[in-house]
């Protein structure tokens, strides 16, 4: 099973990859690099191409 996690650079985006990483699944994360200014930037349902 493959799981893609879009953290939308939000408050839990730095924690979620570790939680999902414990699953026995192929995981990929996007939008998991928050810097305090890029919340929801080029991610989420309004940017499915990413």
What proportion of the residues form beta strands (DSSP E)?
15-25%
Q: How many DSSP helices?
A: 1
What is the radius of gyration? 11 Å
Q: What is the CA-CA span between the terminal residues? A: 20 Å
Q: Structural class of the secondary elements?
A: alpha+beta
Mean pLDDT: 83
Q: pLDDT under 50 segments (min length 5)?
A: none
The neighbouring-strand order within the major sheet is: 1-2
Shape: flat
- State the helicity in percent bands: 10-25%
Number of strands: 2
H-E order: EHE
The main sheet comes to: 2 strands, parallel
Keywords: Isomerase
Protein name: Phosphoglucosamine mutase / FemD, factor involved in methicillin resistance
Enzyme class: isomerase
Organism: Staphylococcus aureus
Describe it for me?
The chain has 50 residues and is α+β, with helices and mostly antiparallel strands. It has one domain (2-41). 12% of the residues lie in helices and 20% in strands. The protein is built from one helix and two strands; from the N terminus they run E-H-E. It has one helix spanning 16-21; strands at residues 2-6, 26-30. The chain has a two-stranded parallel ribbon. Helix 1 (16-21) links the parallel strand 1 and strand 2. The longest helix is centred in the middle third of the chain and has 6 residues, at 16-21. It is flat, with a radius of gyration of 11 Å. The chain starts with a strand and ends in a 20-residue tail after the last strand.
